UniProtKB/TrEMBL annotation, chains A, B, C:
Disulfide bonds join 104-150, 113-134, 119-144, 200-210, 244-253. Homotrimer. Forms heterotrimer with P2RX2. Heterotrimeric P2RX2/3 has a ligand dose-response profile that is distinct from either homotrimeric P2RX2 or P2RX3. It comes from Neogobius melanostomus (round goby). This is P2X purinoceptor. ATP binds at residues 64-66, 169, 276-278, 296.
Length: 381, 381, 381
């Protein structure tokens, strides 16, 4: 029994050969130096491996658009969840007033007809369901008749986007929280005064923390041409990045604004470019019949995307990475041995020293008796 | 001093014993082979450990629903953020026309009363706040009176969903961007022509990249029965997956569409199944009094979920994983030693060779003088 | 050729020195024990390293607000995507009836003027674009004239929030799915009955799984004072957490509700506190002119945030981590060697045993002939 315990508490360490060779010695230390540099410089300093991270940022965004144009801008805000992180600003509209449920000629060019044969009853057309009749569209042409909201919209009308939009301002209010560290912050830095906000406009140089953005600037920062964008509509992303090192002072945790065009495809691709949608305002006549104003709106949609990444010193990752670093230093030996035993003069002698003379061959596996001995050693004694 | 430097630049390597045993030799190589296979096959080829990844995909989604039915579909789109990644299609409605603020009997069956005693003044009922009176509901029954929009809605009416919805089409436009690699792409592949889009309909076999989806197909792909879904309402998820290996050609980075029912619970659970909501259209009489049309709408809601994962060759992960692979090959020795020293015939002899004769015991720790020697060695000399 | 193969299948193992020292033996075992404890206790039991994880939870949220107050609550729901994960409840309103497009004095105090000189034509004011005239605002003051919706809103009116909101109830329906494991679940636990839902109200003690939440309770759980919140408006986050160990029974996978104020900044920061937005209802006169009712609404916005994390046993991570554990046990030796060779009495003797006598020095690198030998050994023979 006792011998088992003494056996248990003996310590085995590898027997080493010391090689007094400048070449290999220097190579060895250089390799070790590289490994240490990697861990200190990259893993610890750059990647901050001594911190625990929180990327599951909680965020709430509120927005307000200010500006006046020939169109009533509320329409767009109305139909989008106010103050949410998506909103849009209408740049041009095609309005079809006083539509009522009824029968009228289809306006889409491809439904122009000579006679009823060309019109399939029950088949949906551009603005309603075909009745199968071919009726006069205007003095010169006839078109398939549809049932639906009449008169049908003519969306080929040329309208010019309203230039005022370029001077509209977007007010952004963003509060964030890193749950792991229970750290909350907002894009209104403590330094910002009521007075400043009244007057400021964001720009990338001087007013990098002003929460009010001029539409024209945002579009420009996203690398877009306002006139084109306003004409076809599009989606602009306003990204708010929170990269916070909570080991540093609280003031260092600031929002960073970046701007991109999200529907990039619209530019490349000729097929259905831009962004537009339809909505309607509903009214009732005295006799109770519904009528509506249909609006096809071209708009710039703004998506506010918030992302964040906070780090704070933590014991566990620090320890794990230090152990990793220490043990990794040993890796150098692998490389050095290859050199030592193959490329160095007198490699043969090194080999002789490193490897002991061989042992006669045994092919068969024994009936793992040895293992049981070890176990019973504890049990039986 | 000099001796310190020479000491510093000596190289230590472990002394090894060479065992000429087929058994252990083959086992050793096999184990090493397995480890190499794992790293090459799984870590590098399958997991692509040589790439840096970007999963923080930026996405913008635009949607348009086309179709005509007995209900005006815009209602639903109107109240949802157009073109956003959530939209719905109303399948059936219960409409209560000409409601005005006033007093009327509650329609919910559980508020039927014999006399005022059963009605609690001030307590909210189904459609308004109780006045405490018990008033005639119809020829046979009386019900508690409420204050609110009157007449109160009767939502027990049986209405059938409109079948046209099955043939409605959903137009999806999705642009994505992988910020790390500044790679942008859209679900309109370059191969897609204006002509194709006019005519195509998505299906899992031939038109896997057509951005137009028939509602009926989507519902079917999600494994749902349209009639049931349309009747009770529900939420369908349209998932767009972008798994892109940016080391391969650009054409290989394509969207993959999958469809699931998101409110799965609604199926299992009898308690409040399906999806419905209420909204109202507001009108004014000439005398200025407000009145409204209340609509209880059963709808299919579509949530478009975009996720992505792009990889591109990067030196750092490649190096790290190669080092890991090389060093891991050594692990085999651990296993082999156990076998060698326990299960092989003549293990005793191996032991004798591997372990050198023991050294007499020293219990006490010295006053760590040795360490200081080493340090002073540099300082003092 | 044959000799190459035999060479290939020889097995090298390190030669070890056995040290019969209680001190070092115990230290060695203790260190190994610590390492094993870390892996078993932390890595496997706490971090569940034997499971593969899925955090890409798919979720669908439906909400319904019930309650009656002096304001018609639908307004707010109307303009927000119903049943989506963001909705709001209006607590107070400033209503401006019968606005028409026209000319009227600006109501914002800072546009009070003595004469036209103070008013800049074309410049936007608070409620419209200035005409450049200075017109009577009331008996005593004059103000710059604007063009826009008139009469201009006076949003300095004191209104009190409606207390009824505190008793409104929020009905939450949340279905989730972990795609990796194709596991679906909902916040209506199987144990919940139709009867229970009719009557229950969520509370943190007894009814932790009731899906109906009283607004007052939610606000309280978020650590807010209802009266203040209702007065200025704000954003409350309702977080639903799904932490599921799918190796355990299905009943263990339950939702956990937590509540926070998301626009935390609003509290700290005096600049634009709270949450409010504007929207309008549009009407038409018989003569076709549009008029509207503008509403400035103070509201409590509720964002429902769902997050989840499911784990299930998986062979690959289990194996990898077990290998890591086994090999890590060896790390102890590094520490022990340092002690053995520096701090232990008789360290010199240990050194003598561990390190073999040195080998003469060779500076120059040979022309890597040795390597080629090895390779050709296979080719030529």
């Amino acid at each position: 029994m006792w011998s088992c315990i003494t056996d248990f508490f003996t310590y085995e360490t590898t027997k080493s050969v010391v090689v007094k060779s400048w070449t290999i010695g220097i190579i060895n230390r250089v390799v070790q130096l590289l490994i240490i540099t990697y861990f200190v410089g990259w893993v610890f300093l750059h990647e901050k491996a001594y911190q625990s991270r929180d990327t599951a940022i909680e965020s709430s965004v509120m927005t307000k658009v200010k500006g006046f144009g020939i169109y009533n801008n509320n329409d767009c805000e109305l139909v989008l969840s106010q103050g949410a992180s998506i909103f849009c600003i209408i740049t041009k509209m095609i309005t079809t007033e006083n539509q009522i449920q009824g029968f009228c000629p289809e306006t889409e060019s491809k439904y122009v007809c000579k006679n009823a044969a060309a019109c399939k009853a029950g088949k949906p057309a551009g603005n309603g369901i075909q009745t199968g009749n071919c009726v006069p569209l205007n003095a010169t042409h006839k078109s398939c008749e549809i049932q639906g909201w009449c008169p049908a919209e003519v969306d080929t009308i040329r309208t010019i986007p309203m230039p005022e939009v370029e001077d509209f301002t977007i007010f952004l209010k963003n509060s964030i929280r890193f749950p792991t560290f229970n750290y909350t912050k907002g894009n209104f830095l403590p330094t910002i005064t009521q007075q400043y906000i009244k007057t400021c406009n964001y720009d990338k140089v001087k007013n990098t923390y002003c929460p009010i953005f001029r539409v024209g600037d945002v579009v420009a920062y996203a690398g877009q041409n306002f006139t084109n964008l306003a004409n076809k509509g599009g989606v602009i992303g306003i990204k708010i990045g929170w990269m916070c090192d909570l080991d540093k002072s609280d003031d260092m945790c600031k929002p960073e604004y970046t701007f991109t065009r999200l529907d990039a495809m619209s530019q490349k691709n000729a097929v259905s470019p831009g962004y537009n949608f339809r909505f309607a305002k509903y009214y009732k006549m005295d006799n109770g019949t519904d009528y509506r104003t249909l609006i096809k709106a071209y708009a710039i949609r703004f998506d506010v995307l918030v992302n964040g990444n906070a780090g704070k010193f933590d014991m566990i990752p620090t320890l794990i990475n230090m152990v990793a670093a220490f043990t990794s230093v040993g890796i150098g030996t692998v490389l050095c041995d290859i050199i030592l035993l193959n490329f160095l003069k007198g490699a043969e002698q090194y080999k002789a020293k490193k490897f002991e003379e061989n042992i006669p061959d045994y092919i068969l596996l024994s009936q793992s008796s040895k293992l049981y001995d070890m176990i019973f050693c504890f049990l039986n004694k």
